[in-house]
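User: Second chain of the day. Same drill as before.
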Amino acid sequence: MVTMKPATTKKFDDLAYAVLLLERQIDSYEKLHQEEIRALREALNELKRRLLQQAATQADDSQTNSQTKEDENNDEGTI
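Assistant: Same format as last time:
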């Protein structure tokens, strides 16, 4: 069995405590990072959804407008 001197024990305890604190800090930052990445991905997905919805609406409007113009042109020729 290895016996340590009191000064050596204190240094060992201090180092062990520093390791523990650093591990906890890393774990906290990692959790925060994951939460922030998740929130950013949710925001990005919402923007993509809105963009696709807007594109679909514009495509529908464009198709409706071109059909209306075509109908108007056909009506002008039947007078």
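Residues 23-57 form one domain.

User: Great, on to the next one.
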